[in-house]
């Protein structure tokens, strides 16, 4: 079969993929690109998740793009608003014309001789059933996120089949689900559960958030008064840049405080919960984790909506283990029974590595768990492949933007030097450096279940994934590309000449 060719293939048309395409168009206008999207719409996470009340769990001045100001008054935005923002970015910049919908990357093989990836792409529907095509490219940029779109994580609850009501996972929320005047139990204590509970409580008879262990919760206003004031006083881009800087500094400051003074941060967080719920509420049981703040992600609730639902009596928190499902609800280990008409399993995500695709280099399969991460975006001995993975302690898009900017630096360097291949190589002297998990010092279950599948990080730059915005800015935007670890090479003249005449380029 004929193999269509592009300089760059972006995988995923969600928040990260659309942002990466914008950077390519503006910083590497000489390069052709295509976006492969396994679903049939733009938006990724913000189209897939449609449960009631879905919203951002960080402010849109940092979750939004660096290059496109967030114009709405609410900084903690609902899902439909974020989806409009992403789609508007794609339409206004002509990025939507580069998207191939229902194209799922199955595998890719790198040829050193030709300096190109050959990607096998399943077309037809979201599961990839249908015909297969091959697409060639010089550079692969994965922006498909880190969780499985086909499966959410649900523990094996004993007696589940005995329950007479409906069991729902938020990742696959039924449009027709009627929870008005129903008794709803939401299993979970993360961002999804805390988003669902106050929203369901508006119409349900009662909502119980059933958690095995508590999570740290912090409330902040949905509207950023400083941001909205700046927008009235300054040009839009200035106001947005200042707000983005302010909020980024606050995110990083808070995270650093949790590392150096965890007890003080813990005390402040719990005092604020007590202010919300009153001295008689059992904060120790329901809102006091047995770990330090940011050992797992903090949960943000806008305008204290979760606390308001609890104060109203429409929602309550139960901290206990599940013995089994019963016909009419859930039997807890304490012996208490929670009556339920609907059970929502907000129990987390199922992670995938590299979008679930398989990769090989010159015919040899790549086991990413055996590779070292380079700056948290490439892998040792794997050329011209970058994975976009945001922050676990700040807004995802902050790192997605930095990653796209760094990729454009590399692509322009390849063009300027006449090279075709950028490969991280660990020098022999460092091959036995101490190994750490790819995401270190972060303990939520959804990460721990999959960390053994991800690349490992070392103990020194550039073989680290610092998850630190300021360090990343220095490494990505100001650090030298020719750093002794990232090697730029060209194939033989004949193969290079062949690749410079693509079969077909994007317009």
Molecular structure report:
It is a single chain. The protein has 507 residues and is of the alpha/beta class. Helices cover 30% and strands 23% of the residues. The protein is built from 14 helices and 25 strands. Strands 1, 2, 3, 4, 5, 6, 19, 20 and 23 form a 9-stranded mixed sheet that branches. Strands 8-17-9-10-13 form a 5-stranded parallel sheet. It is globular. It starts with a strand and ends in an 8-residue tail after the last helix. The C terminus is likely disordered.
Write a brief caption for the model.
With 507 residues, this protein is an alpha/beta fold. It has helices at 15-27, 45-48, 60-63, 79-92, 191-200, 225-233, 236-260, 262-277, 283-286, 305-312, 396-417, 445-448, 469-478, 493-499; strands spanning 4-11, 33-37, 99-101, 103-111, 116-123, 132-142, 147-152, 166-168, 183-187, 206-211, 217-220, 299-302, 315-319, 322-326, 329-332, 337-339, 342-345, 349-351, 358-361, 364-365, 373-374, 378-379, 385-387, 421-424, 486-489.
- DSSP helix count? 14
Question: Tell me about the biggest sheet?
Answer: 9 strands, mixed
Percent range for β-strand residues: 15-25%
Shape: globular
The low-pLDDT segments are: 493-507
Give the overall average pLDDT: 91
The radius of gyration is 24 Å
Q: From the helix content, strand content and strand pairing, which structural class follows?
A: alpha/beta
Distance between the termini: 22 Å
How helix-rich are the residues, as a percent range?
Answer: 25-40%
- β-strand number: 25
């Amino acid at each position: 079969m004929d193999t269509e060719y592009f300089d760059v293939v972006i995988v995923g048309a969600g928040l990260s993929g659309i942002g990466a395409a914008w950077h390519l168009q503006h910083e590497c206008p000489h390069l052709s690109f295509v976006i492969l999207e396994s679903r049939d719409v733009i938006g990724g996470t913000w189209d897939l998740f449609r449960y009631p009340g879905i919203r951002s769990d960080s402010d849109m001045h940092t979750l939004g793009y660096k290059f496109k100001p967030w114009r709405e008054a609410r900084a903690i935005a609902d899902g439909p608003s974020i989806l409009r923002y992403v789609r508007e970015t794609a339409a206004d910049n002509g990025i939507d014309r580069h998207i191939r919908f229902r194209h799922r990357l199955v595998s890719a093989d790198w040829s050193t001789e030709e300096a190109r990836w050959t990607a096998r792409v399943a077309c037809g529907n979201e599961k990839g059933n249908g015909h297969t095509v091959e697409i060639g490219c010089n550079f692969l940029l994965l922006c498909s996120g880190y969780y499985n779109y086909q499966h959410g994580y649900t523990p094996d609850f004993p007696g589940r089949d005995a329950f007479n009501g409906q069991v729902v996972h938020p990742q696959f929320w039924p449009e027709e689900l009627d929870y008005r005047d129903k008794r709803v139990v939401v299993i979970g204590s993360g961002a999804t559960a805390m988003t669902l509970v106050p929203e369901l409580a508006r119409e349900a008879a009662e909502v119980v958030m059933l958690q095995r262990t508590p999570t740290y919760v912090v409330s902040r206003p949905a509207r950023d008064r400083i941001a909205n004031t700046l927008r009235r006083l300054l040009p839009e881009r200035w106001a947005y840049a200042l707000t983005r800087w302010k909020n980024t500094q606050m995110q990083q400051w808070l995270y650093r405080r949790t590392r150096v003074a965890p007890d003080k941060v813990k005390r402040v967080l719990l005092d604020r919960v007590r202010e919300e719920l009153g001295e008689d509420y059992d904060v120790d049981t329901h809102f006091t984790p047995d770990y330090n703040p940011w050992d797992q992600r903090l949960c943000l609730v806008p305008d204290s909506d979760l606390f308001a639902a609890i104060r109203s009596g429409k929602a309550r928190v139960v901290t206990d283990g599940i013995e089994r499902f019963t016909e009419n609800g859930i039997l807890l280990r304490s012996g208490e029974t929670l009556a339920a008409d609907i059970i929502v399993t907000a129990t987390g995500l199922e992670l995938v590595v590299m979008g679930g695709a398989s990769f090989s280099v010159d015919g040899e399969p790549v086991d990413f768990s055996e590779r070292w991460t380079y700056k948290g975006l490439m892998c040792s001995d794997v050329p011209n492949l970058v994975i976009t993975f945001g922050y676990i302690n700040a807004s995802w898009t902050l790192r997605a933007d930095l990653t796209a900017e760094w990729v454009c630096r590399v692509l322009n360097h390849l063009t300027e030097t006449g090279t075709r291949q950028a490969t991280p190589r660990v020098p022999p002297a460092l091959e036995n450096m101490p190994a750490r998990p790819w995401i270190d010092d972060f303990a939520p279950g959804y990460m721990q279940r999959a960390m053994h599948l991800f690349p490992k990080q070392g103990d020194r730059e550039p073989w680290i994934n610092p998850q630190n915005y300021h360090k990343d800015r220095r490494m990505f935007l100001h650090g030298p590309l020719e750093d002794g670890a990232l090697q730029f090479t060209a194939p033989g003249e004949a193969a290079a000449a062949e690749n410079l005449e693509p079969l077909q380029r994007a317009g």
